[in-house]
Amino acid sequence: MPNTEEQELGIPPGQLADDELRRELEQVHRTRHDTFRHGSDSALDTHNRRMTALEAEYLRRFPEREVDPQRLREGAREKR
Question: pTM score > 0.70 for this model?
């Protein structure tokens, strides 16, 4: 039987397969704005903890993730 935190936050990120982790991240990012703007304090706290846990797991698994050069300071300067 899942504990209270597991019920609240879902499957621990470390137990998710790579594709499941990506889907969970996409979902949490998709719902971020509405939760931030309209969720209760409790909902926002839960959302923050889940998002942080998922992002930390993603970075642990993929430390060499693709970085868009346009998202770097130098790339942004080139746009001007």
Answer: yes
pLDDT of 1 over the 50 cut:
no
How far apart, in whole angstroms, are the C-alpha atoms of residue 52 and residue 56?
Answer: 6
Question: Could you tell me which of 16, 9, 6 has the C-alpha nearest to residue 47?
Answer: 9
Q: Of 30, 4, 20, give the one whose Cα is nearest residue 54.
A: 20
For the chain, the domain total comes to: 1
Q: What are the DSSP calls for 27-66, one per residue?
A: HHHHTHHHHHHHS-HHHHHHHHHHHHHHHHHHHHH-TT--
pLDDT of res. 25: 97
What range does the domain containing 18 cover?
4-79
* Residue linked to tokens 């693709």: 66
